[in-house]
């Protein structure tokens, strides 16, 4: 069974600085996706970034980038130039890739609550 | 451009009461699912469906019932509410094979 671990329950950062959120996972699969979701106080689940395991290049989306270390089973999220609107709960999630059949369920970590201070 | 719509957004139930959480999507997605979110545990899969008439259990199915008569709708039924079912519930949908899941706004349920 796959597991996802986020070891930092809470973090804080000053506005405009950089912060890195950690995530490790355990799986015997070779084909899968990894995700970071943001959950602001509105409760909405917002996809921040996605990484396909077969791609060696780290995904980036504007101020958000990941450090994907497949052998170490590590998937950290770096937020550059932090903004007040980045204040949220962040979830790391794993999804096994099925080529035919099978349900692509998400397995979530416990989350990291990030506070951005002015 | 509704996406995934959940109703209600908030609900308070008494122990033993039953209710149905509604979920509808307008993206013609084959896959739909229900997750619950609890502090310190992330989101966990309750039930899922890969198409109309097909449902299956997830990680934490006890106390919940689902059915899927149409592609658009996937209601979650609490048969006899218990305080342990106090949680935030999310409905999600995706295309077959995903990978991106689209979430509803969530329902905060309190059982007293």
* Average of per-residue pLDDT values of chain B: 95
Largest sheet of chain B: 7 strands, mixed
Amino- and carboxy-terminal Cα gap of chain A: 41 Å
Tally of separate helices of chain A? 0
Uncertain spans of chain A, ≥5 residues at pLDDT below 50?
A: none
Shape of chain A: globular
The number of helices of chain B is 0
Tell me the β content of chain B. Answer: over 45%
β-strand number of chain B: 11
Silhouette of chain B: globular
Give Rg of chain B in angstroms.
13 Å
SSE series of chain B: EEEEEEEEEEE
- The proportion of residues forming helix of chain A, as a percent range, comes to under 10%
**Averaging pLDDT over every residue of chain A, what do you get?**
94
Biggest interface, chains and residues, is: A-B, 22 and 26 residues
Secondary structure category of chain B: mainly beta
Order of helices and strands of chain A: EEEEEEEEEEEE
Please bin the fraction of helical residues of chain B.
under 10%
Strand % of chain A is over 45%
Rg calculated over all Cα atoms of chain A: 14 Å
Described by strand count, sense and barrel closure, the largest sheet of chain A is: 6 strands, mixed
Keywords for this structure?
heterodimer; A: mainly beta; six-stranded mixed beta sheet; globular; B: 112 residues; mainly beta; seven-stranded mixed beta sheet; four-stranded antiparallel beta sheet
Concise overview:
The complex is a heterodimer of chains A (118) and B (112). By secondary structure, chain A is mainly β.
Q: Can you describe this structure?
A:
- The complex is a heterodimer of chains A (118) and B (112).
- In chain A, 0% of the residues lie in helices and 52% in strands.
- Chain A is mainly β.
- Chain B is an all-beta fold and 112 residues long.
- Chain B contains no helices and 11 strands.
- Chain B has strands at 4-7, 10-13, 19-25, 31-38, 42-51, 54-57, 64-66, 76-78, 87-94, 102-103, 107-111.
- In chain B, strands 2, 4, 5, 6, 9, 10 and 11 form a 7-stranded mixed β-sheet that branches. A 4-stranded antiparallel β-sheet of chain B has the order 1-3-8-7, with no helix packed on it.
- Chain B is globular.
- The mean pLDDT of chain B is 95.
- The interface between A and B is medium-sized, with 22 and 26 residues.
